[in-house]
């Protein structure tokens, strides 16, 4: 490509963020990736780092040092790499090339349009057909006698950021819908997003009304009335404005605002107080600054964590989702959720609420459906929020990251309730920003159709489902969904934790020494293996002894970007795995040191081979434990 | 990780739970034993039948309060019952019920509530009983019970002043502080027989033999047999082989309280040692002691791998220097050739007590939502934990990677020194990470080396403001918990084990933590007159075992002492909060997996034997077939 002036720089040093470790290697710049390859020191397992250009959030040239010119690259998947390039000219070339490459001006330049896995067209189409939202509404029991599918938005005429297929109360006629949409920001009128069949209670979503100080809209009032009437269990409808009251008031001055309880019959209005996208952006930035500090005292850490407000914001979203869940599942009331435009906080609250209410969304497939429904189809502006194209930096915000964080917090409290593990969330996060798959490109369904994504790109969901076993939570207990369908997370502040495996996913030194998850996976794998052996042996008796070797259906694990379960491999292959995980039972007196950093990595570098990292034999003593020399 | 089973009201709202809402110490056992009994039958029937030894069962039965009934322990007797008492629960509001006081516990129940509410705590946990305010208009008196396990309880009951009958809280006051009231502690009454005698868990000679001692450089001495070299040390000591007994007394004269440098642990390969002592009596004039210098030189010489000796002074340098005014101090590098002195900046018992007091304010009863983290920060609790772990890590690293012997001391060598040496040993030696090994560690480094439990905890003593009280042992257990978090498969015991130790640290049901030194314990004849906590624990050990445990015996564990990896032990400090829901029984899941594997393994082995028997000419088994390979020990 014409932007790449220097495709290869040798003798580049990679500095670890939290230790003094330095790796020398070669830097390659390709059309899609920035690649660092460790100069192999004789061993075959040289470290490779692949960074997709779209993942890069910022590139910074720091001031020249004796060792060369430092280049600091921060990625949206929370990878931070610090290169030192010997010659300043090379550094500048890489720098300016990256600046051009990292944010293309047109969608067509995104990786998804050139990404080509070994799939034929049919497989690709099947991938896109995996999730059918109409089937999802059917699963909820819609259409029914109170709710119907409307074709009012078939041509995206009423609301261009909504999907074509929308569900509304049967009593809401087209003129009412059109009238209501004119009274709502961006035309996003109240529509159904989740139906709680057991109590016939609906979760609806919309944007703020254009009420200003006194404006009314009879059609809008009528539509809310219709939503209320569609639920015979409860006389009133909750209207949740997810904004802080102050923000809503400020919007009123701009001719927008919130519902006046006097004008709408039978509504119960409630502010929830989730801050806006700008606050969230600043908050995450502050959080990353705090945890990115190399030397972090306990005071800095705890106070920094608190002052970043990130966990507080997470709690606000969870609180709102709990409110929604209680209103719907306990009271049996229908709820209308909105914020300003109804595509950020509204998406967070509706989807998290549904996750707490409906065990289906806690399965791998169900979670995909949930994201597809509440985020993608209802027009969360992924392109703007994730900075896919060169756009307005003020539109960028970690709203979706925050949602994933909320889900993770709930999974921590209910480790048996989810079919997926945190790797699944992290992998989704990875690809929301990678622009490798078509799912998250663009800002709305309409844009996606115009881009012909289904013809030109691949779907993430089929890719994830193909390696589903890597994302399974071994503790998942489907029976629990029967006895305890509704989750009610605790909101004690000590239950909101910093998600280390997300924000430090690329910092080896921060990884846990041993993970329980891996132990269980290993145990399960070995049980499966045993079962196979037992079956083989039994078969041998019955058939009369076919040789044991033939029937070993050892399915190789698909290569994945994120590796969660290297255990299964270890048993079948040679004992070449991580020294740390092996049981030293047979090696009599050999002493092993635990707790050097890297080997217990649940992750593997992008596109890299399986865990082939050299295991540092040195012990890294962190913080406050200055290394003493003898 | 497992949370204590402190059941709560929130949990019970969920339809499935039928248990009464309990909020007590022993109830923890109950919920747990219910579950484990359940498990046992599910997992392996033969194990269950083998384990119906009377002792454990009886104790379990007696602590069973599932029906809200008080079940007395052997020789426990009801002293009084007051029927019209209100428990002012900080979470559930006022609850009216009846309060029973025995010579061991305080038992409050309210059966009107659904589920029944029960509060059951050993009176030993109480550090203070105070009357709050005057008699109210309704004729009620309020009493507050400040507990050692982070709780504060408040009761009110109708009581006429001047009436002949004493308030039931005066009885609490009496039995909670037997020492102050010249009564016998309940530990001396309680005579529950157990199938195993926990007093025999630790045999110093066996433990030193396990370490390979005596050897050519180290000898076991009986010089302190009558506790006349050092009365706070154990009778059996390990000292450098070339230091005769007579010289030990002269060394003792130069060390605070006579606590001379003795061996705690020796590296099986490099012979590097962890030795412990108290501060040298240097004083302002910089006194020296030839014998002490020779003693340390001998410790260094015993390790051929290194020509250096590290002296870790646990204190901040300022405190160490201030001790010179009181005749103490620290080793000067001039006097001790080849020794390097390192200060570990760990604060004294008073700072720790204050830190825990602040922590209690922050976590009990309610947590302030908006400033949780900065409030937590202001207690400095985690910072102290971090410093202790960091210190232990440096010691372990010096011994393991530096192959250098270390001497650890603080002022008297029974608080911070015990924390550091025991944690370093826990990192270095996998034996101490087993259920029994940990008991040995506590018996050795804490009990036999004279951590002053009686003074630090104040067993049965009314004087709650005593400046000698300090949560030193709690901090140690907290550090252990932090390590188990980082290495969930390296410890044979689980979180419940640690919590049980802490609960019985205060309960005074067992004799284990009574008295201040080995000598006192022998004088009181505790092994004969009381029951050891380890008897109880080892008689039902599977409740305390970690199903994830893999024998990492030869691994050295280096925890990360970064803030990102240390966290508040909410399962202990916040366990009374009903919003801390008991976590889903993950461990049961693990256990099921393990049981299934054992069963499969048996089956495979059987089948293979049969195969081998039937067709001796059959081709050899597939290499790496899981059945035969030792990989199956787990991972």
UniProtKB/TrEMBL annotation, chain A:
PROSITE patterns assigned: PPASE_MYOTUBULARIN, TYR_PHOSPHATASE_1
Offer a single GO CC term for the protein: nuclear envelope
- Give the GO biological process terms: phosphatidylinositol dephosphorylation
Annotated Myotubularin phosphatase domain ranges read: 127-503
Task: Answer whether the UniProt record assigns the keyword Phosphoprotein to this protein.
Answer: no
Ranges of compositional bias, category Acidic residues:
573-582
Keyword list, A-Z: Hydrolase, Lipid metabolism
* Residues that bind substrate: 276-277, 339-345
Molecular function (GO) terms for this protein are:
phosphatidylinositol-3,5-bisphosphate phosphatase activity; phosphatidylinositol-3-phosphate phosphatase activity
Keyword GTP-binding attributed: no
- Residues the record marks as active site: 339 (phosphocysteine intermediate)
Q: What is this protein called?
A: Myotubularin related protein 6
Q: Which organism is it from?
A: Paramormyrops kingsleyae
The uppermost taxa in this organism's lineage are: Eukaryota, Metazoa, Chordata, Craniata, Vertebrata
